């Protein structure tokens, strides 16, 4: 029992040091393995956040490109853009175009983002389960005394 508590404290201390070392730096992944995957350190959470930010930014850029494209077509064909309905229609068409394009073009980035979120969720779930079992062990010891 005492060995388990010592192991858990050592694991928490190691995780804290890893988080501190990954947060203090220029943001580069200099200590990352060559394969690009990171173990259970805090850097994988950072990498997942970068994947989410990258995918979201690319989605926004794709939407703006689609909006410019649709607006350009409307101007070329002399469509009336003075009413709110026509502007809303342009936005809706650009949204539909960018959604369809992102489904095809950004699949690699979407998969990377999804994998990062799943890994982070599993890691947090494991920490929660470990903490719950640790509390249960404390309660059991308190009842024995």
Return the string of H and E elements. Answer: HHHH
Q: What would you call the shape?
A: elongated
Query: What's the total count of β strands?
Result: 0
Number of domains: 1
Specify the biggest β-sheet.
Answer: none
Mean pLDDT across the residues is: 74
Put simply, the count of helices is: 4
Query: How far apart, in Å, are the first and last alpha carbons?
Result: 15 Å
Helix/strand/pairing class, anyone? mainly alpha
Tell me the strand percentage band: under 5%
Radius of gyration: 24 Å
Q: Which spans of ≥5 residues are poorly predicted at pLDDT below 50?
A: 1-41
Helix amount: over 70%
Short synopsis of the structure:
With 145 residues, this protein is an all-alpha fold. It has 4 helices and no strands.
Q: Can you describe what's shown?
A:
The chain is mainly α. The chain has one domain. The chain has four helices and no strands. It is elongated.
